[in-house]
Amino acid sequence: MIERYTLPQMKELWSDENKFRKWVEVEILACEAQAKLGNIPKSVVPRIRKKANFNVEKINQIEQKVKHDVIAFLTNLAEYIGEDSKYIHLGMTSYDVVDTALSLILKDAGNIILKDLEELKKVVREKAFQYKNTPMIGRTHGVQAEPISLGLKFALWYAEIERDIERLKRAIKTVSVGKLSGAVGNFAHLNPKIEEYVCKKAGLVPASVSTQILQRDRHAEFVTTMAIIAGSIEKFTTEIRNLQRTEILELEEGFTKGQKGSSAMPHKRNPFMCERLTGMARVVRGDALAALENMNLWHERDITNSAVERVILPDSTSLVNYILVNFTRIMENLTVYPENMLKNIDKTRGLVFSQRILTKLTQKTKTREEAYALVQENAMKAWNTGESFKELVLQDQRIKKYLSQKEILDCFDLKYYLRNVDYIFKRVFGRK
User: Fold this and answer.
1) What is the CATH number of the domain that holds 130?
2) pTM of the predicted model, to two decimals?
3) Among the options 15, 210, 219, 262, which is catalytic?
4) Of these residues, 15, 43, 103, 141, which one is catalytic?
5) Buried b vs exposed e over 183-200: b needs ≥16 C-beta within 10 Å?
6) Same domain for 97 and 65?
7) How does pLDDT run across 68-88, given as a tens digit for each residue?
8) Residue range of the domain that includes 53
9) 119 in the same domain as 85
10) Is 68 a catalytic residue?
């Protein structure tokens, strides 16, 4: 696990201490189920629950000798429980415990990230409404296209975050399953009612069918969902980084007092956190590929997935947690330069209004091609000479044959491009 980028709550969740606590709980619930079925004395269950404990360091020491983590755990657990430990793990295989407990951890990790997404969604919504009618230039292929509003850009992000939330809810549901079906999934030594009982008590759903393990398409769906969430943030941070470029400078990652951007250049204010989160998204994508590779296991199981998951499951969830928490802070402290947005709209000296002129002309000329040729000729002249596109159009007698001065000037009104922002906001945010 990448310790430096693991926040406290997620660090505790993926700790050995928490893992073994989950293992203990699965084992005790299985004992409760066995007692209810009359397979073991009911009197032993309270004693087992009271005495059940473990020591992480001792488990690790035992594992060094036996080379099996679950056997090491059961050995140490038996030292605390004593004679009643013979009722522990009856008919079960290791992954009845491991996979069911892992599902509980993934469910908890998913819910932490779900809260992160909800918090980010709230902040992005506030920013969208704050800058709802703040005009800026829209860009396609990295080139100025037509005016939009900054709020519209944030509304787009908000809608994507909502989709991420729905994806994550589905992924949490997919991994919220348990299995206590024995060594090859046929319940040869376990009554299926034990699985039903344990899963219900633990807040999971029994897998309809399993082998020795839960099938890894579930985990692949969960980790690929982590990758999509990270990809969304990568997209947002890349946009901020681009808009922070000196030549544009419309947005800027917050720069705190005492912060330094470069060891050599004291003037630098770099979007370092946006860059960090962009890089982390690449790691999560790599985790997703490994999760997809884990789906292919031999027969009723092999352990090629096991070591991989010890890396990718803690890492992907920890990184996405870190990414979301820190991107929320970036959004809260984002610096916005509306005056630069207006300057950038004017940078092409009116060229970004060319489609409006084209549309007006097309309504009056014989063909669209004729209108397009007139507008493009003036646009290319403005590009090449630096003259004002608006002035060139106003001086072109061929265009003035079709459009009055007022009609031409109306084509350069910024408000025209924001006239449907309210409508879009209603579709994204609802009527409220």
Assistant:
1) 1.20.200.10
2) 0.93
3) 262
4) 141
5) bebebeebeeebbebbbe
6) no
7) 999 999 999 999 999 999 999
8) 1-90
9) no
10) no
